[in-house]
Amino acid sequence: MELMNKRESVIRDILSHMIIMADSAGMFANDLDIATKLIGLLVGGHDTSSSAITSVMKFLAEYPHVYDRVFKEQREIANSKREGEPLNWEDLQKMKYSWNVVCEAMRLRPPIAGTFREAITHFCYAGFRIPKGWKIYWNAYTTHKDPKYFPDPDKFDPSRFEKDGLTPFTFVPFGGGPRMCPGREYGRLVILVFLHNVVNKFSWEKLVPNEKTISLVIPTPSEGFPIGLKPHENAMVHEV
Ligand code: HEM
């Protein structure tokens, strides 16, 4: 027990935790297990948020009127803080329009296209019989582009998220059901804090106007999304 406490006290990161700690049966994870889980955490926990941020910056460069509204919202929050005062949870709740913009960016460019489910019973869908046990891939792109739920689906329109009552399971950037992304609130925090700081400090323009998006599991700009940053005068920046 004492040894366990000593071990726990030196664990400061997830890699050390996976190397040092045994499961309830006393078994340690092997190298392959650890590597697989770390890659999953890096892609799932980091690349998703950075992809969403890239998409938001792309759309803000393309739609100056949307940038202006985000800037206004974020500048009001910045102005309500004292010099050097960090952002807090209440500030995040005020970022309503900014979050609608992030949602619309993730609707059109979901960081994760979809994942798998296993059919736990036989069922019919769209005339196809799906046998129990089959693996099924659900896809956010097709769901997010269904005009029944998102009229004029190719249009970038953050106001869709101002209306109440999205049909359940139609907007699924974080998945849905019991395996829904457990990092979604943290992801929201990372994206909004970044947006707050970048918008309060800069406006920007795309340097490759028609840059393509390629899919490297997550949507990725083909040229690395070069931008020209234009600093605002009197920029205000807050950490969290
Ligand atoms: C914008 C940011 C993010 C997006 C769009 C996103 C998206 C997703 C999606 C679509 C799934 C599959 C859900 C399902 O099958 O129903 C998922 C699962 C998961 N995500 Fe995220 N994620 C984000 C951020 C994060 C962060 C920051 C973390 C952790 C620090 C994280 C950890 C996980 C984990 C562990 C799972 C697997 C959950 C399970 O299978 O039970 N995600 N995420």
UniProtKB/TrEMBL annotation:
Tree of life domain: Eukaryota
Main location per the UniProt record: membrane
Protein's name in the database: Cytochrome P450
Names of the cofactor(s): heme
GO MF annotation, one: heme binding
One GO CC term, this protein: membrane
Keyword set, alphabetical order: Heme, Iron, Membrane, Metal-binding, Monooxygenase, Oxidoreductase, Transmembrane, Transmembrane helix
Binding, heme: 181
Organism, scientific name: Dillenia turbinata
Topology in the lipid bilayer: Single-pass membrane protein
